[in-house]
Amino acid sequence: MGAPASSVAVVATVVVCLCGAFARAQAQDMDNEWARPPYRGFFGAPGSLLPQSDVDLLEFPLNLEYLETEFFCWSALGYGLDAIDANLTGGGPPSIGGQSASLTPFIRDVASQFCYQEVGHLRAIKQTVRGFPRPLLDISAANFGKIIEQALNATLDPPFNPYENSVNFLIASYIIPYVGLTGYVGANPRLLTPQARKLLAGLLAVESAQDAVIRTLLYEHGTARVASYAVGVAEITAHISDLRNSLGRRGVKDEGLVVAPELGPEGLTVGNVIAGDHLSLAYDRTPEEILGIVYGTGNPAQHGGFFPQGADGRIARGLLA
Fold first, then answer.
1. Which of 1, 17, 24, 164 has the largest count of CB atoms under 10 Å?
2. Where is pLDDT greater, at 153 or 5?
Protein backbone atom coordinates (compact mmCIF):
# COMPACT_ATOMS: atom_id res chain seq x y z
CA MET A 1 0.00 0.00 0.00
CA GLY A 2 1.53 3.41 -1.02
CA ALA A 3 2.44 6.18 1.43
CA PRO A 4 -0.03 9.09 1.82
CA ALA A 5 0.52 11.92 -0.67
CA SER A 6 1.08 14.41 2.18
CA SER A 7 3.95 12.32 3.60
CA VAL A 8 5.64 12.07 0.20
CA ALA A 9 5.40 15.83 -0.24
CA VAL A 10 6.98 16.46 3.18
CA VAL A 11 9.88 14.10 2.45
CA ALA A 12 10.43 15.67 -0.98
CA THR A 13 10.49 19.15 0.56
CA VAL A 14 13.09 18.07 3.15
CA VAL A 15 15.29 16.44 0.50
CA VAL A 16 15.17 19.55 -1.73
CA CYS A 17 16.09 21.80 1.19
CA LEU A 18 18.99 19.56 2.24
CA CYS A 19 20.29 19.33 -1.33
CA GLY A 20 20.07 23.09 -1.75
CA ALA A 21 21.94 23.71 1.50
CA PHE A 22 24.64 21.19 0.52
CA ALA A 23 25.05 22.77 -2.92
CA ARG A 24 25.35 26.23 -1.39
CA ALA A 25 27.97 24.99 1.07
CA GLN A 26 29.95 23.34 -1.74
CA ALA A 27 29.80 26.48 -3.85
CA GLN A 28 31.00 28.58 -0.89
CA ASP A 29 33.92 26.20 -0.26
CA MET A 30 34.86 26.31 -3.95
CA ASP A 31 34.77 30.11 -3.95
CA ASN A 32 37.02 30.20 -0.89
CA GLU A 33 39.49 27.76 -2.47
CA TRP A 34 39.65 29.30 -5.97
CA ALA A 35 39.51 32.96 -5.08
CA ARG A 36 42.91 33.30 -3.38
CA PRO A 37 43.83 35.59 -5.13
CA PRO A 38 40.96 36.16 -7.62
CA TYR A 39 42.55 35.86 -11.09
CA ARG A 40 39.67 37.25 -13.12
CA GLY A 41 39.64 38.80 -16.55
CA PHE A 42 43.31 39.24 -17.36
CA PHE A 43 44.14 40.02 -20.99
CA GLY A 44 40.82 39.36 -22.62
CA ALA A 45 39.59 36.53 -20.44
CA PRO A 46 36.69 38.14 -18.52
CA GLY A 47 35.21 35.99 -15.81
CA SER A 48 38.06 33.49 -15.70
CA LEU A 49 38.82 32.10 -12.26
CA LEU A 50 41.92 30.06 -11.49
CA PRO A 51 43.54 28.92 -8.25
CA GLN A 52 47.01 30.23 -7.53
CA SER A 53 48.56 26.81 -8.16
CA ASP A 54 47.12 26.68 -11.69
CA VAL A 55 48.32 30.21 -12.38
CA ASP A 56 51.84 29.27 -11.29
CA LEU A 57 51.90 26.11 -13.41
CA LEU A 58 50.64 27.97 -16.50
CA GLU A 59 53.01 30.90 -16.07
CA PHE A 60 56.14 28.79 -15.64
CA PRO A 61 56.13 27.48 -19.27
CA LEU A 62 56.28 31.08 -20.53
CA ASN A 63 60.03 30.83 -19.93
CA LEU A 64 60.36 28.02 -22.48
CA GLU A 65 57.84 29.56 -24.87
CA TYR A 66 59.78 32.84 -24.91
CA LEU A 67 62.98 30.88 -25.58
CA GLU A 68 61.49 28.89 -28.45
CA THR A 69 59.87 31.99 -29.95
CA GLU A 70 63.14 33.92 -29.99
CA PHE A 71 65.24 31.08 -31.40
CA PHE A 72 62.82 30.00 -34.12
CA CYS A 73 61.92 33.55 -35.19
CA TRP A 74 65.48 34.80 -35.33
CA SER A 75 66.60 31.68 -37.22
CA ALA A 76 63.78 31.82 -39.78
CA LEU A 77 63.08 35.54 -40.11
CA GLY A 78 66.16 37.34 -38.89
CA TYR A 79 64.28 39.12 -36.10
CA GLY A 80 62.58 38.24 -32.84
CA LEU A 81 59.43 38.93 -30.87
CA ASP A 82 60.02 42.69 -30.61
CA ALA A 83 59.46 43.03 -34.37
CA ILE A 84 56.41 40.74 -34.39
CA ASP A 85 54.49 42.02 -31.37
CA ALA A 86 56.47 44.08 -28.86
CA ASN A 87 53.53 43.99 -26.43
CA LEU A 88 54.06 40.26 -25.95
CA THR A 89 57.57 40.90 -24.60
CA GLY A 90 56.11 42.75 -21.62
CA GLY A 91 59.04 45.14 -21.89
CA GLY A 92 61.60 42.42 -21.21
CA PRO A 93 65.20 42.79 -22.43
CA PRO A 94 66.14 41.81 -25.99
CA SER A 95 67.65 38.38 -26.47
CA ILE A 96 71.40 37.90 -26.81
CA GLY A 97 72.93 36.67 -30.07
CA GLY A 98 69.93 35.95 -32.29
CA GLN A 99 70.61 35.91 -36.02
CA SER A 100 69.21 34.65 -39.29
CA ALA A 101 70.22 31.06 -40.00
CA SER A 102 71.49 29.77 -43.34
CA LEU A 103 68.65 27.37 -44.08
CA THR A 104 67.26 25.57 -47.09
CA PRO A 105 63.91 26.98 -48.27
CA PHE A 106 62.12 23.92 -46.87
CA ILE A 107 63.68 24.14 -43.39
CA ARG A 108 63.17 27.91 -43.31
CA ASP A 109 59.49 27.34 -44.05
CA VAL A 110 59.25 24.84 -41.19
CA ALA A 111 61.13 27.16 -38.83
CA SER A 112 58.82 30.06 -39.79
CA GLN A 113 55.79 27.98 -38.91
CA PHE A 114 57.35 27.05 -35.57
CA CYS A 115 58.08 30.74 -34.94
CA TYR A 116 54.49 31.86 -35.41
CA GLN A 117 53.15 28.85 -33.49
CA GLU A 118 55.22 29.94 -30.50
CA VAL A 119 53.88 33.48 -30.79
CA GLY A 120 50.40 31.99 -30.62
CA HIS A 121 51.37 30.05 -27.50
CA LEU A 122 52.48 33.25 -25.80
CA ARG A 123 49.14 34.87 -26.65
CA ALA A 124 47.19 31.86 -25.39
CA ILE A 125 48.95 31.76 -22.04
CA LYS A 126 48.79 35.51 -21.51
CA GLN A 127 45.08 35.53 -22.28
CA THR A 128 44.61 33.14 -19.37
CA VAL A 129 47.10 34.34 -16.74
CA ARG A 130 48.93 37.60 -16.14
CA GLY A 131 52.35 36.26 -17.08
CA PHE A 132 55.62 38.17 -16.83
CA PRO A 133 58.01 40.05 -19.13
CA ARG A 134 60.38 38.12 -21.36
CA PRO A 135 63.46 37.22 -19.30
CA LEU A 136 66.97 37.78 -20.63
CA LEU A 137 67.70 34.94 -23.05
CA ASP A 138 71.02 33.83 -24.53
CA ILE A 139 70.44 32.27 -27.96
CA SER A 140 73.90 33.08 -29.24
CA ALA A 141 75.94 30.66 -31.31
CA ALA A 142 78.50 30.66 -28.50
CA ASN A 143 75.94 29.44 -25.96
CA PHE A 144 74.67 26.65 -28.20
CA GLY A 145 78.30 25.75 -28.87
CA LYS A 146 78.95 25.37 -25.14
CA ILE A 147 75.93 23.07 -24.79
CA ILE A 148 77.10 20.81 -27.63
CA GLU A 149 80.64 20.69 -26.22
CA GLN A 150 79.19 19.87 -22.80
CA ALA A 151 77.17 17.06 -24.36
CA LEU A 152 80.13 15.64 -26.29
CA ASN A 153 82.60 16.34 -23.47
CA ALA A 154 84.95 17.73 -26.09
CA THR A 155 86.21 21.03 -27.46
CA LEU A 156 85.08 21.52 -31.05
CA ASP A 157 87.08 23.28 -33.72
CA PRO A 158 85.42 25.15 -35.28
CA PRO A 159 82.82 25.76 -32.54
CA PHE A 160 79.32 24.44 -33.21
CA ASN A 161 77.11 27.12 -34.77
CA PRO A 162 73.33 26.52 -34.89
CA TYR A 163 72.88 29.25 -37.51
CA GLU A 164 75.44 27.83 -39.94
CA ASN A 165 73.27 25.34 -41.85
CA SER A 166 70.01 23.39 -41.72
CA VAL A 167 71.38 20.31 -39.97
CA ASN A 168 73.02 22.39 -37.26
CA PHE A 169 69.77 24.32 -36.83
CA LEU A 170 67.81 21.09 -36.41
CA ILE A 171 70.32 19.78 -33.87
CA ALA A 172 69.99 23.02 -31.91
CA SER A 173 66.19 22.78 -32.20
CA TYR A 174 66.39 19.25 -30.79
CA ILE A 175 67.65 20.82 -27.57
CA ILE A 176 64.60 22.98 -26.78
CA PRO A 177 60.96 21.89 -27.48
CA TYR A 178 61.31 18.42 -25.96
CA VAL A 179 62.18 19.92 -22.58
CA GLY A 180 59.01 22.00 -22.67
CA LEU A 181 56.74 19.13 -23.63
CA THR A 182 57.99 16.96 -20.74
CA GLY A 183 57.17 19.89 -18.47
CA TYR A 184 53.61 20.01 -19.79
CA VAL A 185 53.24 16.26 -19.18
CA GLY A 186 54.48 16.77 -15.63
CA ALA A 187 52.17 19.71 -14.94
CA ASN A 188 49.00 18.05 -16.26
CA PRO A 189 48.04 15.97 -13.18
CA ARG A 190 48.73 18.91 -10.89
CA LEU A 191 46.23 21.27 -12.56
CA LEU A 192 42.89 21.69 -10.81
CA THR A 193 40.62 23.36 -13.35
CA PRO A 194 39.26 22.29 -16.75
CA GLN A 195 40.21 25.69 -18.18
CA ALA A 196 43.87 25.19 -17.27
CA ARG A 197 43.91 21.56 -18.45
CA LYS A 198 42.39 22.50 -21.80
CA LEU A 199 45.03 25.16 -22.40
CA LEU A 200 47.83 22.81 -21.41
CA ALA A 201 46.49 20.04 -23.66
CA GLY A 202 46.52 22.39 -26.64
CA LEU A 203 50.06 23.56 -25.90
CA LEU A 204 51.32 20.02 -25.35
CA ALA A 205 49.85 18.77 -28.62
CA VAL A 206 51.66 21.35 -30.73
CA GLU A 207 54.94 21.15 -28.78
CA SER A 208 54.90 17.37 -29.23
CA ALA A 209 54.25 17.77 -32.95
CA GLN A 210 57.16 20.19 -33.27
CA ASP A 211 59.47 17.76 -31.51
CA ALA A 212 58.27 14.93 -33.75
CA VAL A 213 58.98 17.00 -36.87
CA ILE A 214 62.47 17.89 -35.64
CA ARG A 215 63.28 14.30 -34.73
CA THR A 216 61.94 12.98 -38.04
CA LEU A 217 63.98 15.43 -40.08
CA LEU A 218 67.10 14.53 -38.10
CA TYR A 219 66.34 10.80 -38.28
CA GLU A 220 66.49 11.03 -42.06
CA HIS A 221 70.12 12.20 -41.67
CA GLY A 222 70.87 9.86 -38.76
CA THR A 223 74.00 8.27 -40.18
CA ALA A 224 75.35 11.46 -41.76
CA ARG A 225 78.29 13.22 -40.15
CA VAL A 226 77.82 16.67 -38.68
CA ALA A 227 79.87 19.08 -40.80
CA SER A 228 83.46 19.52 -39.53
CA TYR A 229 83.07 16.93 -36.78
CA ALA A 230 83.66 13.20 -36.66
CA VAL A 231 80.29 12.50 -35.08
CA GLY A 232 77.01 11.36 -36.60
CA VAL A 233 73.66 13.11 -36.31
CA ALA A 234 72.00 10.27 -34.37
CA GLU A 235 75.04 10.01 -32.12
CA ILE A 236 74.96 13.69 -31.23
CA THR A 237 71.25 13.48 -30.33
CA ALA A 238 72.07 10.63 -27.96
CA HIS A 239 74.74 12.76 -26.29
CA ILE A 240 72.32 15.69 -25.94
CA SER A 241 69.71 13.41 -24.39
CA ASP A 242 72.28 11.95 -22.00
CA LEU A 243 73.26 15.47 -20.96
CA ARG A 244 69.66 16.41 -20.27
CA ASN A 245 69.19 13.25 -18.22
CA SER A 246 72.29 14.14 -16.24
CA LEU A 247 71.24 17.75 -15.64
CA GLY A 248 67.66 16.72 -14.79
CA ARG A 249 68.95 14.34 -12.10
CA ARG A 250 65.85 12.13 -12.18
CA GLY A 251 66.99 9.16 -14.26
CA VAL A 252 66.22 8.46 -17.92
CA LYS A 253 63.57 10.79 -19.31
CA ASP A 254 65.27 11.49 -22.61
CA GLU A 255 66.37 9.32 -25.53
CA GLY A 256 68.24 9.90 -28.77
CA LEU A 257 67.16 8.89 -32.26
CA VAL A 258 68.78 5.45 -31.99
CA VAL A 259 68.73 3.35 -28.81
CA ALA A 260 69.64 -0.11 -27.62
CA PRO A 261 67.02 -2.65 -28.80
CA GLU A 262 65.60 -3.15 -25.32
CA LEU A 263 64.84 0.58 -25.10
CA GLY A 264 62.98 0.81 -28.41
CA PRO A 265 59.19 0.49 -28.74
CA GLU A 266 58.20 -2.92 -27.34
CA GLY A 267 61.92 -3.70 -27.18
CA LEU A 268 61.86 -4.52 -30.90
CA THR A 269 63.48 -1.56 -32.69
CA VAL A 270 66.64 0.49 -32.42
CA GLY A 271 64.99 3.34 -34.30
CA ASN A 272 63.52 5.85 -31.87
CA VAL A 273 62.01 8.64 -33.91
CA ILE A 274 59.66 9.51 -31.02
CA ALA A 275 60.92 9.26 -27.45
CA GLY A 276 58.83 7.40 -24.90
CA ASP A 277 59.03 5.12 -21.88
CA HIS A 278 58.66 1.31 -21.92
CA LEU A 279 54.97 1.76 -22.79
CA SER A 280 55.75 4.46 -25.38
CA LEU A 281 54.23 7.13 -23.15
CA ALA A 282 55.78 10.59 -22.93
CA TYR A 283 58.17 11.26 -20.07
CA ASP A 284 57.38 13.94 -17.49
CA ARG A 285 59.57 16.52 -15.79
CA THR A 286 59.16 18.93 -12.88
CA PRO A 287 60.03 22.64 -12.97
CA GLU A 288 63.13 21.82 -10.90
CA GLU A 289 64.35 19.35 -13.52
CA ILE A 290 63.60 21.73 -16.39
CA LEU A 291 65.45 24.64 -14.81
CA GLY A 292 68.47 22.47 -14.09
CA ILE A 293 68.54 21.58 -17.79
CA VAL A 294 67.99 25.00 -19.36
CA TYR A 295 70.39 26.63 -16.88
CA GLY A 296 72.99 24.04 -17.85
CA THR A 297 73.95 23.68 -14.19
CA GLY A 298 71.80 20.79 -13.02
CA ASN A 299 70.68 23.08 -10.20
CA PRO A 300 67.39 25.05 -10.30
CA ALA A 301 68.90 27.54 -7.85
CA GLN A 302 71.92 28.30 -10.07
CA HIS A 303 71.02 30.19 -13.24
CA GLY A 304 72.99 30.26 -16.47
CA GLY A 305 72.79 28.73 -19.94
CA PHE A 306 69.81 30.08 -21.85
CA PHE A 307 68.82 32.23 -18.83
CA PRO A 308 71.82 34.31 -17.72
CA GLN A 309 69.75 36.09 -15.06
CA GLY A 310 67.40 33.21 -14.29
CA ALA A 311 63.87 32.32 -15.36
CA ASP A 312 60.80 34.22 -14.14
CA GLY A 313 57.48 33.41 -12.50
CA ARG A 314 56.71 32.46 -8.89
CA ILE A 315 58.02 28.91 -9.26
CA ALA A 316 61.36 29.84 -10.82
CA ARG A 317 61.93 32.84 -8.55
CA GLY A 318 61.10 30.75 -5.51
CA LEU A 319 63.70 28.16 -6.46
CA LEU A 320 66.35 30.81 -7.10
CA ALA A 321 65.65 32.34 -3.68
1. 164
2. 153
